[in-house]
Write a structure and sequence with these properties.
The chain is an alpha/beta fold. The chain is built from twelve helices and 13 strands. It has helices at residues 39-55, 70-82, 99-107, 132-150, 168-181, 198-212, 225-237, 253-261, 272-287, 321-325, 332-335, 340-346, and strands spanning 3-4, 27-32, 60-65, 87-90, 112-115, 126-130, 157-162, 187-192, 217-222, 267-269, 296-299, 304-310, 313-315. It has an eight-stranded mixed beta sheet, sandwiched between helices. A three-stranded parallel beta sheet has the order 8-7-9, sandwiched between helices. A two-stranded antiparallel ribbon has the order 10-13.
Length: 350
């Protein structure tokens, strides 16, 4: 279902196919792919909506989450176009299968910003994301560093739990990780995880432990925090007394707490505020008929897309205070609850 930051009415946009050069109060539609990854509802949506409101109090924001359903997202985009959306900001469930939706927007002269995931098969106005290959490199390097510290890089095997095969970012993360790990560790099992599902990641990890043997798994490359949580659950269930190092991404609250208590080795901290706010700035500008210059371009297989690529940050326990807490991503009081309080004190988080 489409929701809006402002009351939807019959006149909240211009008739399809008859867009003006720009408007002081455009209607902007934001589409996010799923809610299993906590960042989307907790950060991306509210940060985007707040920035639009700050830049353009009269602007309307239509919002929809597809719950990892590509057909549902198609209906949501078509509904927004029918309601007169002036700009689409689209984080695609299946980024390789939404060219037809972008084409519908083009036909109605509605500009498109690809958010977080690179859309292929058609050109459009902007792509805003993080340097995804670099994310994978950071994850791979962190895992390799952890294994080298314990002398286990040359013994045992690691398990790679990659993201959804319909998300092109997953391929970039995997590419970056393999660039670091190949030839330096033995990869015992590797999985592409549908829907980035923590439950499926848990099942994959259980399968890997059964196939490789509990004592032979010395590390886990998990592409995000949610799946890391699933893998950790599988390892606990299998009777690990000491968990091998495991990576993550997104700096989910539960993951930050796991890093502090030693269950998870690291996460990739993405400044989602920067991503959401840059996308909101571009959306408002496009809605007003403007087209800001982009610092770089990325080829999506069809053309060069004007692109804003943001820098990721690798975070281990000793870096949480000066990154995640310092930036206000979470307050210390949110992180340092219950049994985590003592772990926070050890790294100076109060």
């Amino acid at each position: 279902m489409l929701t809006a930051a402002a009351v939807l009415a019959g006149g909240c946009g211009n008739n399809a196919g008859d867009k003006p050069a720009g408007s002081d109060a455009p209607t902007i539609a934001l589409f996010l792919p799923e809610s299993k990854t906590t960042r989307y509802e907790a950060f991306d949506r509210p940060l985007f909506e707040a920035k639009v409101k700050a830049l353009c109090a009269a602007c309307k924001v239509l919002y929809a989450n597809a719950d990892q359903d590509a057909a549902k997202q198609q209906q949501q985009v078509e509904a927004a176009l029918a309601q007169g959306a002036d700009v689409l900001v689209l984080d695609a469930v299946d980024a390789g299968a939404v060219a037809s939706l972008v084409n519908q927007a083009k036909q109605k002269k509605v500009p498109v910003v690809a958010y977080d995931r690179l859309i292929s098969g058609i050109t459009y106005e902007y792509y805003v994301s993080f340097d995804n290959v670099r994310v994978g490199e950071m994850q791979g390097q962190a895992l390799l560093d952890a294994l080298n510290k314990t002398g286990k890089a040359g013994s045992g095997q690691i398990v790679m739990i990659n993201g959804s095969p319909t998300d092109p970012s997953s391929a970039d993360y995997k590419k970056g990780a393999h660039k670091i790990l190949d030839g330096k560790v033995q990869i015992g099992r590797e999985y592409d995880t549908p829907d980035w599902s923590p439950d499926k990641a848990q099942q994959e990890m259980e399968q890997a432990i059964t196939a490789l043997g509990r004592d032979n798994v010395v590390g886990v490359l998990s592409a995000n925090d949610g799946m890391a949580g699933g893998a950790i659950a599988a390892m606990k269930r299998a009777g690990y007394t000491t968990l091998p190092p495991i990576t993550g991404q997104d700096a989910e609250l539960a993951a930050v707490q796991r890093i502090l208590t030693g269950e998870q080795y690291m996460t990739i901290y993405l400044d989602i505020r920067q991503e959401a706010e840059k996308s909101a700035e571009l959306a408002v500008a496009l809605g007003r008929g403007e087209k800001p210059a982009a610092p770089t371009k990325v080829n999506n297989g069809t053309g060069d897309i004007p692109t804003f690529l943001l820098d990721p940050t690798a975070v281990t326990a000793d870096k949480i205070k000066d990154t995640i807490i310092k930036d206000g991503f979470y307050k210390a009081s949110e992180v340092c609850t219950g049994a985590v309080a003592a772990a926070c004190a050890k790294v100076g988080i109060q």
